[in-house]
Each structure stands twice: as structure tokens, then as C-alpha cells.
Specification:
With about 240 residues, the chain is α+β, with helices and mostly antiparallel strands. About 50% of the residues lie in helices and about 10% in strands. Strand 4 and strand 5 form a beta hairpin.
């Protein structure tokens, strides 16, 4: 006669079998979700790429049409600016220091994106001696996110090594992958604030070739480094990534 198995052992075996089944199901669902997320990310990337190319082609067509008509094509005002802090804390006025804190530029060579409107333009003019800024291209935004991108999760600086980091941070507003994040930032979409706040300020290096001590405090238009440099910000970022 086979020995009777204690009831406690039978219960334990049943519980362990149940846990194993649940773990297997959870693993299968996670794999399916990862596969679907990858498909969605690739589809989003293709869609946004087509959108950027169409916008570029439209701008070229408008310039050609204006030239043929003997006029000039005036592009719309930029909606996005990239600000880079180029000076330290010595000699900074309290007002400028406060504005740089609002822009999250707490350290030298920190960079952040800012939505351009009347109030932010006025604030930028007040801190022009301490920062340089301009209008980034889609390629520059992409390089910054891919090469220097860190997200803010639970007040911690987490590297964006996976789309799951983005989904956890801003998935609630429909931003689920790198392509979504770059598109939301570059086009200054309806959830720009959430996407930008999720991104930790970029920590850039000193530019290759360096800044000149003689011209660092002079405005860009006067041959210096500070202030608004328009499209030229993209060349500077390339040297600092």
C-alpha cells in the first residue's frame, strides 16, 4: 500500500503548479506584447519619416515657386529651440539664474528643448550672455535622444536603452517609442510638455576645438559664441555630442 501523501504537501504542490502556469502565461503575454510593440515602433518610424520628407519637399517646392515668381518664400517661425548653457555660475544675476533653473540648465554644457512663444523668447533674451540657442533639425533632435537621451522615472535618471522606458514614463499620453518621442518634440505636439519633462537635460561635452576665451562672452552676431545662432546650433551640437 502506497504511503498517504499529507494534505499540506498536496496543497503546496497545487500552489506551485498554479504559480508555474501563471508565470508561463505572463511570459507568453510579455513576448507577444514585445513583438507587437516592435511592429508598432517600426510602423510609427516609417510614418514619421514619410511626414518629414513630405514637409521638406513642400518647403523646397515653395522656395522654387517663389523664386520663379520673382519673390521670396518666408518659412513659418520656428516653434522649437535648443538651449545650451555655455557659462558657469560666477557673475550670474539672480534673475538670470532663476530663468536658467526654470529651463533646467543647472550645469555648464547642459542642453534642453524649449517651446518658443512670446514669454519664452523674452526669457531667452534675458539669459543670452550665459547661453547659446538655435533651431534644431529633426536629425539633431534624433541624435540627442539616441546618443545622450536619459529619461526621468521616479525622479531617477534612467538611460533610454529600450522603448519600455519611454512607455513607462510617457506611455499614458500616447508616446510609446523613440520615434513617437522625437516626433512629439520636433513638431511641438500637444503632449510636448510631458515628453520634454520626461527627458533629463542633455549633458554635452566641451565642443571639439573648444570655445575661444576672447569671444565666449560676445554675441554670436558679433563673432562670439553666446545668444541666438539660428540653424548654426546644429553644427555646434555635432561638435558637442
Amino acid at each position: 500500500m502506497a504511503p498517504k501523501i499529507p494534505e499540506s504537501v498536496l496543497k503546496k504542490q497545487a500552489t506551485q503548479a498554479k504559480i508555474a502556469t501563471q508565470a508561463k502565461q505572463a511570459s507568453y503575454e510579455a513576448k507577444q506584447k514585445k513583438r507587437q510593440d516592435k511592429k508598432d515602433a517600426i510602423a510609427a518610424s516609417k510614418k514619421y519619416s514619410a511626414e518629414y520628407q513630405a514637409a521638406e519637399a513642400a518647403a523646397v517646392a515653395n522656395r522654387r515657386q517663389a523664386k520663379a515668381a520673382g519673390g521670396f518664400f518666408v518659412p513659418p517661425m520656428p516653434k522649437l529651440a535648443l538651449i545650451i548653457r555655455i557659462r558657469g555660475t560666477i557673475g550670474v544675476s539672480p534673475k538670470a539664474k532663476k530663468i536658467m533653473q526654470l529651463f533646467r540648465l543647472r550645469q555648464i554644457h547642459n542642453a534642453t528643448f524649449v517651446k518658443l512663444n512670446e514669454s519664452t523668447i523674452r526669457m531667452l533674451r534675458l539669459i543670452e550672455p550665459y547661453v547659446t540657442y538655435g533651431y534644431p533639425t529633426q536629425s539633431t533632435v534624433e541624435k540627442l535622444v539616441y546618443k545622450r537621451g536619459f529619461g526621468k522615472l521616479n525622479k531617477q535618471r534612467i538611460p533610454i536603452a529600450d522603448n519600455s522606458v519611454i512607455e513607462e514614463g510617457v506611455g499614458s499620453v500616447g508616446v510609446k517609442c523613440c520615434a513617437d518621442l522625437i516626433h512629439e518634440i520636433y513638431t511641438v505636439g500637444p503632449h510636448f510638455k510631458e515628453a520634454n519633462n520626461f527627458l533629463w537635460p542633455f549633458k554635452l561635452t566641451s565642443p571639439r576645438g573648444g570655445f575661444s576665451n576672447k569671444t565666449k562672452l560676445v554675441h554670436f552676431l558679433e563673432g562670439g559664441e553666446a545668444g541666438n545662432r539660428g540653424e548654426e546650433i546644429n553644427k555646434l551640437v555635432k561638435r558637442m555630442i
